[in-house]
Amino acid sequence: MATRKQDDLVLEAKKSAVKPPPLFKVMILNDDYTPMDFVVVVLQKFFSMNREQATRVMLKVHREGVGVCGVFPRDVAATKVEHVCAYARSHQHPLACVMEEN
Ligand code: TYC
Fold first, then answer.
1. Residue 3 scores a pLDDT above 80
2. Which residues does 64 contact at the CB level (< 8 Å), separation at least 6?
3. What's the pTM?
4. Which of 27, 29, 31 to mutate to test the pocket of ligand 1 (most atoms within 8 A of CB)?
5. I want to staple 102 with a disulfide (CB 3.0 to 4.6 A). Which of 22, 23, 58, 90 is the partner?
6. How far is the CA of 35 from the centre of ligand 1 (A)?
């Protein structure tokens, strides 16, 4: 905000009334049927990971049950979830992909 005090322009910091938009984690879940190679391809195709990053995330999910693929604004996260689920279904794999507020 700008105010004038005795001809000097004073710039004052003003707290913003608007909150930054929420971010959402996109996660994949482990299952017993989706092939490991397919999960690696999904992570490379939809989350721009290289083969090494994708393999690390896939193995973490395989061992721990869930893993984060990325963090995005709501609409981007929702689109990723839809695309991953549609791609998995089109290959008859049960891979689950979900989003959760960060
Ligand atoms: N557990 C699967 C297997 O042994 C591999 C897998 C990893 C599946 C990650 C899903 O999100 C997943 N073939």
1. no
2. 30
3. 0.85
4. 31
5. 23
6. 6
